[in-house]
Specification:
This protein has one domain: Gamma-glutamyl cyclotransferase-like (Hypothetical upf0131 protein ytfp). A hairpin with a 4-residue loop joins strand 4 and strand 5. It has a five-stranded mixed beta barrel. The chain contains three helices and six strands. It has 140 residues and is an alpha+beta fold.
C-alpha cells in the first residue's frame, strides 16, 4: 500500500521510531501532492495538509511492505486526521494513487506554514530537555 507523507514522517529518524524493524522494508521516493500546502495545526507542533489551488506539497511516496507497517502508521496519526486517497506525482515516474492523512473537520490549521527543519530543531531541544530532566540536571 502506498502512502504520501508530508510532515513529521518525512524525517527518517522518526520513521525508524514509528516502524521499527519494519522500516527496512519501506520503499521511499520524493513526491508531490498538487493543490495542497502544509500549515501548522493551531496550537500544535505538527502539520495539516490544507487545500490551496496552485500549491504543490513536497513529501515522500512510501510503499509499505505489509499490513503491520500500515497498522503502525495508522496508529501514529492522531484523531485530527482522516485517511483519503489522492493522486500523487512521484519525482520519477507517473502519478499514482496514495493514502494521505488529511485533517478532519474538527482540526484547525493556523496561518503559519509548517517547516520540517524548524520541527526538527524543536524536537532535538525537547529530547535534550527530557534527558536533562530524567538525569536530574534541570532545564536546558
Amino acid at each position: 500500500m502506498r502512502y504520501f507523507f508530508y510532515g513529521t514522517l518525512v524525517d527518517a529518524a522518526l520513521r525508524r521510531h514509528v516502524f521499527g524493524r519494519l522500516c527496512g522494508g519501506l520503499r521511499v521516493v520524493p513526491a508531490v501532492l498538487d493543490g495542497y500546502e502544509a500549515r501548522l495545526a493551531a496550537g500544535k507542533r505538527y502539520p495539516l495538509a490544507v487545500r490551496c489551488p496552485g500549491a504543490a506539497l513536497a513529501g515522500l511516496l512510501v510503499t509499505l511492505p505489509h499490513r503491520r507497517a500500515a497498522a503502525r502508521v495508522n496508529a501514529y496519526e492522531g484523531p485530527e486526521y482522516r485517511r483519503a486517497r489522492r493522486a500523487v506525482r512521484a519525482a520519477q515516474g507517473p502519478g499514482v494513487s496514495a493514502v494521505v492523512f488529511l485533517p478532519t473537520a474538527r482540526a484547525r490549521a493556523s496561518r503559519s506554514h509548517w517547516n520540517l527543519e524548524l520541527w526538527r530543531q524543536g524536537a532535538a531541544r525537547r529530547r535534550r530537555v527530557f534527558r536533562r530532566a530524567v538525569h536530574g540536571l534541570g532545564p536546558v
